[in-house]
Amino acid sequence: MTELIQEIKEKQNITLEQLKQILGEKDQEKIQQLHEAAACTAEEIYGKNIFIRGLIEFTNYCKNDCFYCGIRRSNRNADRYRLSKEEILACCKNGYELGFRTFVLQGGEDPYFTDDVICDIVSDIRKEYPDCAITLSIGEKEKESYQRYYEAGANRYLLRHETADDCHYQILHPKELSLEHRKQCLRDLKEIGYQVGCGFMVGSPGQTPETLFEDLQFIKELEPHMVGIGPFIPQQDTPFAGKTAGTLEETLKLLSIIRLIHPHVLLPSTTALGTIHPLGREKGIQAGANVVMPNLSPVAVREKYKLYDNKICTGDEAAECRYCMQKRMESIGYQVVVDRGDYR
Length: 344
Description:
With 344 residues, the protein is α/β, with parallel strands linked by helices.
């Protein structure tokens, strides 16, 4: 395994055979070597610093009907909400006082939030917090819309590609959505000048080593600044309700591989990891991740943003999330820093 890890690290790429070997590896000592190599790679670039992003889930309305997602438009059980601009700004104020220097506005593709509305919100945040990064995660738009958000003051954009294999994409999404359009959105965002994040679920229905290999090759081609991956967790009100969840072990292996093939990437240890294992986020950091995303959303709406079931931290105030995360990171020898945490 040592030679294999070294070869991947030197070439900053992986073959399908190497991927299959790692995914099939059961020897815990060898798996630990992989995680340690990835963590050391992250430390060489970013030190022991962990960057925090303040997550604001501002709408759970969505026009799309993705088969895995709890806020899909067909879910009649979803308790819908939208935050006002004033509520979003109050989340930012609270977050800034807690040391957050990146705000992530995440929501479904909600037609209520037109380009004008988004630009108004972004420009007000930019005026109020000129030293902060503003990240949007609001789905597929046309290039002109992305350009407007950028000019209003947004710096980063997260858009998980979900899978880079067309057949697998069709298993996860309704016919009106296309992988090619999603990939084009990511290319448009990079061209405009955003720091861009893509990503995928680990263990989603229909996923194979071959589709995962396509994901890794797409990451190499796109060279995103951020990659967000987490285990697939079924949501009870979706067509995938009875499907098997992704595993901690496979997610950690893929975090490590992504760190080795794209060393400078900003790599979150996600809430989904913490949902499937009590120490999931710590283990993600120890496998090469260097970003965590505590929730700044008002407690009253957190339970309603149900992308998947059993999500953690839905009852915590923002300060509880922030300081809990700080203690968790300190317990494994890392430090949460007051920093925008830009790609280096």
